[in-house]
Amino acid sequence: MKLTDYAKHLLISPNLEDKLLPPSRFWDEEVDFNAIRIEKPGRNQNLQFSDKKIKIPRLEHLNLESNRGLTLHHFANHELMAIELFAWAILAFPNAPKSIRNGWVKTIEEEQIHLKLYIKRMNDFGVQFGDIPLNYIFWKQLNQFHSLESFSAVMSLSFEGANLDYSQVYAKVFSYFGDNLTSDIMVYIFEDEVKHVKRGVRAFEKSIPPNQNSWEHYLSLIQFPFTPRRAKGYLYFPETRTLAGLDSRFVKELEVYEDEYTGRVNLESVKKFGLGSELMRKNRLDSLSL
Fold first, then answer.
1. 289 belongs to a structural domain
2. Of 56, 110, 126, 186, which residue has the fewest beta carbons closer than 10 angstroms?
3. pLDDT value of residue 220
4. What angle do CA 40, 44, 48 make, to 5 degrees?
5. Is 49 helix (H, G, I), strand (E, B) or coil?
6. Which residues, 6 or more positions from 136, have their beta carbon under 8 angstroms from its beta carbon?
7. What is the pLDDT of residues 227-250, one digit of tens each?
């Protein structure tokens, strides 16, 4: 199979099982091809995009298993969109360096594992994927993706960057409520997200102009109303960005960044858990059988 055929398969196939098809270890040789920009992925009826706004359960309500299932449903939706959009990038940027394309393939494979982990665990809580409406916040950013650098700025440094914070927050809160299995899943995913952001940094940093620093270059690649607030979570863990290869100036600028949306989240409900700044880390979790 050619890599482009695989990417088309992930994007066009409506079945979830097809989107979970892991990548090959070997690809057929492929000649140059024109950029292909698919506007919307194929999806079965129960996985269609919805404009209905469904709020993620508040952290203090995660003592209830039903709310844990709904929370994981939100996260699973993000994983599915990420699988599709990294496949989209393979088709949209045919001239991307081989190392970048290989990184996208590896990211797809890891996102597929994350999606299966979330689905299996949410099923334990009585929630099936597609039970609640699926937003398409990642897909709404297509007009941002003018280049592989802007794609990396939005998908890797922003959305996946924010998940460095969210995965830590939820790992700590699930652990607080005694749900160590779900906490371990979040830590496992955190470890992979560090690699995902690092891959994005490699694609991003090669294009920094001599007269700009990394933060200025990042700002030049994103367009309002998308802002750096999308690049961090309820709580900010600077150390995670350093682990992902971002320089100290970028890490600090993101930490102090505020806009009109800052503070919309009820931080008191976050702070009540006393989460602290120490990262939850594990190399690999043998208990997470698929």
1. no
2. 126
3. 97
4. 55
5. strand
6. 49, 50, 81
7. 999 999 988 999 999 999 999 999
